Amino acid sequence: MKIALGSDHRGDAAAGVLAEHLRAAGHDVVILGEQGPDSRDYPDAAWVVGRAVADGSADVGVLLCGSGNGVAIAANKIDGVRAGVAGDELAAEMARRHNNANVLAVGTDNNDNARVVAIVDAWLGATFEGGRHARRVEKITAIERGVDPRTVKQRATVK
Question: Is the pTM above the cut of 0.70?
């Protein structure tokens, strides 16, 4: 799987550890955006990773910042991105199983590197369940298009 990985300065250390782990597991990982000790704005990382997922140059994306919230909010502004925030393995698994999240945002302030790896592994190991969840994800897509989600009645196929 091709994974786009990005972080702000607060997620850099975890990003390096995570990239190494994912590559060892056989994934094609590309780190996007700037790296280094200087303060960086989290929307920049969210933009490059979100665009890579939206345009298909990456299968999924992982974003790391202090809380996970900032990168998720920014990434979710990009059409085609469904970014979920996960502070633990269950939240990560459910983001994939029920919301078909194609980007995962993880906070590094309250998670050490090993926990970040475990959270991302739980997300990558989960599969979208479809069924009633497909209709709900289609409603999210309707909102993205500016359409009232209450008008979506059919169970759609979600990519």
Answer: yes
Point out the catalytic residue in the list 9, 21, 27, 98: 98
Q: Is 98 a catalytic residue?
A: yes
Catalytic residue among 9, 21, 27, 65: 65
Q: Is 9 a catalytic residue?
A: no
Q: Cα dihedral angle (129, 85, 142, 33), rounded to 10 degrees? A: -110
- Parse the chain into domains and list their residue ranges: 2-128, 129-159
Helix axes 113-125, 12-24, angle to 10 degrees: 50
Q: With respect to CATH, is domain 2-128 assigned 3.40.1400.10?
A: yes
Residue 154 has a pLDDT of 65
Vertex 138: Cα angle to 132 and 143 (nearest 5): 135
Residues β-bridged to residue 104? 62, 84
